Every structure is written in C-alpha cells, then in structure tokens.
Amino acid sequence: MGGKIFVNYRRSDSDAHALSIAQYLEKEFGAARVFIDVDFSSPSRAEDDQALETALTRWKQDQVALPIFLQSVSGSETSLALTRPLPRFERHASVASVNLVPDNDSVVRVAEPFWEIGGSRVPSVFSKLSGVAYGKRSMPIDFSIAPESFAYFSYADVLQGRVPLEDFRGKTVLIGATALELGDMQPVPVHRTLPGVVIHALATQTAIVSPVKPLSEITQLLLLAAWTLLFSWLYSQRPWTVNLALTAVALAVAVGLGLLAYGLRLRLDAAPLACAVAGTFVAATLASLDAADLRNRLLVRLANKRRAVLDSVFASSYDGILWVDESGVVVSANAAVLSLLGMPEEQVVGQSVTRFLSHPLLSSATADLAGMNGRILEAELHSPQNVAVPVEVSTTLARHAEGRHFTLILRDLRERRRQEALLRHQATHDALTGLPNRLLLVEELERRVVDRASQPLSVISLNLVRFKLINDTLGHDAGDTVLRSAAFRLESVLAGRGMISRLDGDCFGILAECEGDRTRLMQLARDLGDALSRHFEFQGIPIGVGANIGIACFPKDGRDALALLKNSGVALYDARRNGEDLAFYEADSEQHGVRQLALLGELREALEHNALELHFQPKVSLRTGLCDSVEALLRWNHPVHGFISPGELIPLIEPTEMLRPLTDWTINRALEQQAQWSEQGPRVRIAVNLSARLLQDQGLPDRLAGMMAAHLGAACLGGKAPPDESAAAYHEWISRWFAADARQLQTFYGKLAAG
C-alpha cells in the first residue's frame, strides 16, 4: 500500500509502548505522519505521560493524530459520552474521530468524512490522513484492497532496529492493535472481520487512490423498481420453465452490472437486483404450482442441507463436543471426544456425563449443567484406563420444542499444561547448571519459613575463589565447565540435606536443614569447601578453586526469606574481606558493610574532584644510612571520618572497578612529583604498590610506558636514551623496556592462580 505502514502492539502492552514507537519512528525514520490508535483519555504513570507530552512537542501539530470517539454510557443504550485525549496531549496534536457506523446488518461498508462533536466538526481518520476533502456524504470503503498489501511491523522489531529504515521514510504510520482477543474487530465485506485500525487505513487508501462514487439512494430505488416491474411482466406471459431460464439470464445480468460498477468505481450493490428477480420468479412459480407442496419440499431440502452442514462441523471439530440432555445423559459425542476417551460411540452415548467428566459442579448423583451454562471451567476427562485428561469446558444451553439440551465443548489442555510447565521450569532454573535459580530458592525458603514457625533453618551463601581469574586467563568456556562441575559436587555433598541454587555468577545459595546447630553447619560448610578444593580440569589443565561461605540462621538472623538471603550474603562478604573460608552473620558486620558501600561511593567523587593525597615514605639504606628511594602511599582525608586507614581503604578498592583508575591516578601523581624532583637536583626513585589483580591487565605495560614517557621522557630510562628523542620513540622504547618484566610477572601470577 502506498504510504501506509502498520506497527502492531499486543494486548499486554501499555500506552508507554505506543509512545516509544511513535518517538522512535519520528527520530530514526522521519515518518511523515503518525496516528496512534490508543485511548489517552486517562492519566497513566506520571513519567510516561510526561514523556508523551515531550515527544508531541517535537512534532508539528498536524503530523500526529490522536483518537477521539463517542461511546455508550455504561447502563444506557441511548446516552453517548465523548472520549478524547487529555488536554496536555491534545494541545500538541490534532484529533481524528475513530467512530465507525455499521449498516443495519452490522457490517461496516462506509466511512464518515467528519463527525459533529461538541458543536464542531471533527475529521475522521481517513479525512485527516489523506487530506482529501470528500464533502458531506459517506464514503464507501474499497474492500477490494488487500489488507496484506500494507506493511506490518511489531513494536518490538521497530524498537530493536530489526526493520529496514527506508520502509518508514516519508510514510504515514498507523499504530494500533490487531489482536483478535482485544475485541476491536468489525464485520466487513470480502474479508469477514478486520481490526478497526485496518479499516481506517483502507478508508484512507480509498480516499487517496480509488474513491468509490456512490449512486444516490433514489437512483438505486428507481433501478430496483424498474427491474422488478420488467420481470414481473415477463413472467406473467410465460410458463414457469421459461421463467426459470429468464431468471438465470437475469442473475447473470445482475452480476455483470455489479462488475461494471466495480470497474467504474461506482457503489452499486447488485444483491437487491438479484433478489428482486428471484423473488419475482418464486412468486410467479407459486402462482402456477401447488404452493404448499413446493414450500414443504423447499423446507425439507433446506433443513437437510443445514443438518448436513451441522453434522460436518460436529464431526470434524478439533475440540471435543458432547450433546447432553437435561438429566445429564450423553445424547451424542463427536470423534474428538471419542479419541480422548479411547472408547467407541456406543459406550459413551446413553451414559451419564458424570461418568467421564469430573468437576465440583458435577457429581455421581446429579449434573448441575445449568450452573455451568455460559461459563468456561477446567475439569478432567476420565477414560476407562484411569487416564485423566485436563480439559477446558464451555457449556451452552439450547432450548427447542422437545425441551432443552446442553452442548459441552471440551478442549484438551495437556499441551498447554506442558508448555506452562516448561516455561515455569525455565523461569525458575539456571540454564547453565540446571540448578534452581534465586526465584525458586526464595519461594521455597518462604514456604519453609511459614511451615517451620520458629524452628531453626539456615541459609548458606557460597562463592568460588579465583573464579574471575579463570574467566580472564582461560576463557568463559573454562568458567562454565568449572560452574557445572562445582554445581554437581555441591549437590553430591548435600545429598538430600538441603536445596542448592545458583544465585548469579559464581555465587550459590543453599537452604540447609541443619536445625540451626552451629557445629553441624560448620561441618556441612567444611564438606562443601572440601568438595570444591579438589582440582577441576579443563582441556588437561588443572584448575584450583576454593570457596568463601557465609551463613545466616532462622529465626535469629532473619524472619523472612529475603532477610535471611541478604544476611547470608553479608556473612559471605565478611568471610572474603577477612580472608576466611567461613563466617556466620553478625549484625555489626552489616553496619560495617553499609559504611564501606558509602565510602566506596564517596571515594569515586573524591577521585573525580582530585581530593586524594599522595604521601611519600622515605626508604633508608641500612648500609649507607641515606635515603635512596621513597614509597608512594595513597591517603584519603575524609571530610567526616578523617583519615581513612590503608587497612580499610585498600581492601575496599581491591575487588571493585575503582582499582584501575585509582592506580593510574597514583602513578601519574608519583611521576609528576619525580619530574619535579629531577628538575631540582637529585634523581629519586619512587616505588608504587600494584595490586596482583592488575597483573592480569594485558594493557598495563603500554599504559605505564605512556604515562612515564609523558611525564619524564628519557629521565625514567636511567640515562638510556633512544636514538630518536620524539615522544613516540620514548613511548615505544619505554614500553619494550618495561613490558618484559611486567609480562613475566603476569605469567607467574597466572600459573600461581591456576595451581
């Protein structure tokens, strides 16, 4: 379709999703116009509403159209209420009416060019988007246009950039919902039913490309009257057999007129003409035959045909269908039910429905089918082999001359249940190890806390030592192998004494049933640690891994699942910080952890504002008694806590991403000071402490060389100047000079960690 693109969203999506799509289309693709078929009459979340208003201000007012519509007031069939966007949105966008008016048979065939709303004319969607002035008359919609000719994109594909950009350039974009379950489906010619937003697009396309010119109602009535009179006269002059041939010719002419009107883009419904011919023929024929006999034969034929259609639907339905009388006895069963039961029809028909179907509304004594009428319930269908099949049951009551019966439609739920179970397992288990994840651990812990009341229960948090080093040196495949093997070993140790889950990364959570006995808990922790202390193997390389363990006990250390899990993590942090294998939760440690988190955040700000200090500690030679070098020491004078000791500062920095920038800051300041001393006289060597973690950084030698060349030049080489004294030559020379020792240290540290 020229100029129109649909972006579909699903029933679970919010107004904010539609807004995001509109913003993305305007920003990335330069869409010419955007119509958002979303009700913005009620406030949403404050941040979403503000985002929508902000986005609308970036568009010209006539580029974005929001819906306005009349709808019935709840509980009234005559009163109408006007629904329009909130004023904060309408100030920045134009509005278009989305009301559709069906004909008397509930089929939508035309679109109104405008609506009188609130004393003013509001253009409809097709008038707004097409820019074509159609006057006051209704415009017939050209339903020969295939809805499939439009370009459809899901909002997820648009937002994630999975669609060609040029598909949207300069186009008019309609954002709306096309899901069947949303209920925005309207009966239409040709296509049976279409979503409202698609009908608006068809009307827009009709107005732009191929407007249909309606014949006036008077013209159509005169044509119908002349047609009827003509054939009435012809039928009156000939026997019914000749009239039958004339009728066939007339019907062919009616079809031809309809096709001619379609080719000329005229709105001419040939059906009334054909009906007039057929009705005249029937009237003339009944006048010459026994009308009663003919009527009976026709009714019998019609009834047989209808019965054949119903029987075909009944027999071929994928859903099971049971016809049951008022007393609950099965009158008929289709093939789908018989297949579910594994029984022939003669063993089902005549039996009580309660023999096969179980639900609280059904019992062996009575079948409360009336209580099930109009409801969708879940029940079980039982076969003679005692196989229970879960089914969804919808019941409909039918009244007729002989009484009434119930139609039960049964839908097999086994596949749905299997998919639900699979999704549940995926949501509650770790994909790598197959262990339960944090979600399932919390659920199980909550259940056991409730069941146990005040009985002891323990939660263990465990992480692998040197796991990051394994990933960094041997790769993530090695890390995954270690994680799977560690999970297997931990499960083997527990052996039914608890539940183990993978929380995240290299951290595991264990629900231990040790009744709070510290001795038993310590023994379990030792068993877990011993299991991980044995070497793992990856591609013939032995890998050494240890464990840090933190323990929290119910109810002393927490009375709910989240508190217990958090406090076991606090204990784990204490174990890592103190260099211990095992730690129990202590309330004082949590306060210490809170202080450390606060200090870490403040340290980042101190580094950004150059609020740290570098002190230089002399190193005196015992042989000469002279100071031949100094050691650079990082100091932080906190505005509240005063000087933070290195014993607290260094362990705080060591495991975080702050280690690298803080080390680079220290080296740069030390080099600046050395350069100043060199200008003043004697050359002083400065020692800077490096974390062993930094020896894993492959870019460290080159980064240090760059800093040394920038601050010191040839002075840092101990008089060994390169032939070319350019800055680039200094950098390359220093890098080669330093890299050999640095990389030897890296290799040594890697072997030490692995073994």
Descriptive account of the structure:
Strand 3 (64-72) and strand 4 form a beta hairpin. This protein folds into five domains: 4-212, no CATH class; 217-289, no CATH class; 305-417, PAS domain (Beta-Lactamase, 2-Layer Sandwich); 429-585, Reverse transcriptase/Diguanylate cyclase domain (Alpha-Beta Plaits, 2-Layer Sandwich), CATH 3.30.70; 606-754, TIM Barrel (Alpha-Beta Barrel). The strands form nine sheets. Strands 1, 2, 3, 4, 5, 10 and 11 form a seven-stranded mixed β-sheet that branches. The protein is elongated, with a radius of gyration of 41 Å. The longest helix has 28 residues, at 727-754. The protein has 23 helices and 32 strands. With 755 residues, it is an alpha/beta fold.
The geometry reads as elongated
Low-pLDDT ranges: 9-13
- How helical, in percent, are the residues? 40-55%
- Outline the biggest β-sheet: 7 strands, mixed
Overall residue-averaged pLDDT value = 76
- Find the structural class using helix and strand composition: alpha/beta
Number of helices: 23
- Share in β-strands: 15-25%
Number of domains: 5
Give the N-terminus to C-terminus distance in angstroms. 67 Å
The count of β-strands is: 32
Radius of gyration equals: 41 Å
